[in-house]
Each structure stands twice: as C-alpha cells, then as structure tokens.
C-alpha cells in the first residue's frame, strides 16, 4: 500500500488536541495512524483493516515506530467491530472509485472501491463508536462532497471544518477534508493549494501542514 498525498493530508490535518482515543478505519499501511501518534503523544490509537496482508503490513510498520506501545491493529470488517470504549476521533481515507471499473489487483481493489467500506457504513457505525463530543475526519474526492454531507446528516453529524484542496492555482478542487461532529455549529471553511505556479514547487501552506512527515521538507 503506497504512501499517498491523501493520507498524508488527513493525518496532518485531523484534529488531535485533547483527544485520548483514536480509531483509524481502513488503516491500510498504518500511515495515518502513525501520523496521529506522532502529533499526539498521549493518544491511544486503534487501526482497523479488513485485509489480513495489509493489516500485517500496518502491524509491521507500527512495531517499527516509537509509538507501538499505544497502538494496535485489529484485522476485521469494520461493521463487525464492537469495542467496549468510545472514541474521541475517528479518521478514514475511505475508498473512492465508486463508479470506476474494478482493477485487476484484488488488494488495491478492496482499498479503492466502496463495496467493503462506504460512506453509509462509515457514518452509521461511527454513530455507535464515537463519544458524545467526538468527531469524524475524512478526506474525499470533491465530486462526492454533497453525497457525503447528506449521508452524514442522516446520522446527525454536522460539518465542523472543511478544507478544499487544489493541486495548483487554476485547477479545480480535487479533494475535500471534512470534520463532522454531533453539534450543529458554524463550519470553518478554508482552502489549500499544494503547488504554486511553478511545477513541483510546494506552497508555504502545504509545507507548513505536512513538513513534520516528509524528510524532503
């Protein structure tokens, strides 16, 4: 499972202040879980991953990190995950090729298609797993933003923060980062450009957000 910009963005952006228990749904290689562990030295993090081979990779990565004593990987279907304690933060970089043709690699298919983890399941099951003041943070393609917000509403989740991500000026918005909570409050809106006018020249805002996770920065 490759390290992608989407995962790095979510791991760098999701709110971790005063958070004690975090759940990473569809954890993949464990990238986002590791970023959150790096950002919050107190949080206990559980990473749920349905694919045994991928879960084993996440476990290996976590065991190699300085934070393994407060992290665990659970290999199971998210819909069958029923822990005793609630979470303060649930994060997910969910599958997004909703209408695309299935790819030949089954492992990458499972990671990219919504057959195993869709927005309905994510919000519906999170409603039982999240503490009353807890929040859900996700990254999604811009074209499904309306669908995601409508689905969240069904389970009484309201947008608290929204970040529109652009690859560069003049290009359409490609990704949206969203944080949802149960409280109906004014949503904080912002935008982020990854590159400036020059190709592969990162903007100061993108560097400020992600520099703790890239050796090249």
Order of helices and strands: HEHEHEEHHEHEEEH
Give the low-confidence spans: 97-104, 107-115
CATH superfamily: Vaccinia Virus protein VP39
According to CATH, the fold-level topology is Rossmann fold
User: Helix fraction?
Assistant: 25-40%
Number of alpha- plus pi-helical segments: 7
Rg measurement, Å: 17 Å
* pLDDT averaged residue by residue: 90
Instruction: State the separation between the terminal residues, measured CA to CA.
Output: 22 Å
Q: Which band does the percent of strand residues land in? A: 25-35%
Instruction: Give the class from helix and strand content and strand pairing.
Output: alpha/beta
Strand order of the largest sheet: 3-2-1-4-5-7-6-8
Q: What is the global morphology?
A: globular
Task: Provide the number of structural domains.
Answer: 1
Annotation, overall tally of beta strands: 8
The major beta sheet can be summarized as: 8 strands, mixed
The CATH class is identified as: Alpha Beta
Which CATH architecture?
Answer: 3-Layer(aba) Sandwich
Protein architecture, described:
The chain is an alpha/beta fold and 217 residues long. It has a single domain (5-213), classed as Vaccinia Virus protein VP39 (Rossmann fold, 3-Layer(aba) Sandwich). Helices cover 30% and strands 27% of the residues. The chain contains seven helices and eight strands, in the order αβαβαββααβαβββα. It has helices at residues 5-13, 31-39, 52-63, 106-112, 119-129, 145-154, 204-210; strands spanning 21-25, 44-49, 71-75, 87-92, 130-141, 158-166, 173-181, 188-193. An eight-stranded mixed β-sheet has the order 3-2-1-4-5-7-6-8. A hairpin with a 6-residue loop joins strand 6 and strand 7 (173-181). The longest helix is centred in the first third of the chain and has 12 residues, at 52-63. The relative contact order is 0.15. Residues 97-104 and 107-115 have low confidence and may be disordered.
